[in-house]
């Protein structure tokens, strides 16, 4: 490779282009970058969604099996109390206890739901606003 060829490789092609061309190219490159990043995020979310779906299905099956186990345990508790009290009364006591537990859990769930509303990704929105502010300040200079 000759000295002239080496110098040609190191020439800055940006210095030969007008500001208008550079700004236009910047806009095109930024648009391409954003589209590419969005496609990547979409594919990643699709993959993670499929994996999460499989995991959720397995949790669902585990929940059903655990439910049957819980029912068997409740029957055992009712039969244990039935040694001392009539069966109908022991079933009533266990049922009332379960309803009280369910009510307490429902109150906790309701308070958690109130904390989570409104359903807006506040961190993501804040990040996007910060990015926009930085870009705006950079273009003013």
TrEMBL record:
Keywords: Membrane, Transmembrane, Transmembrane helix. This is Putative superfamily III holin-X. The chain crosses the membrane at residues 56-81, 87-108. The keyword Transmembrane helix applies. Pfam families: Phage_holin_3_6. InterPro entries: Phage_holin_3_6.
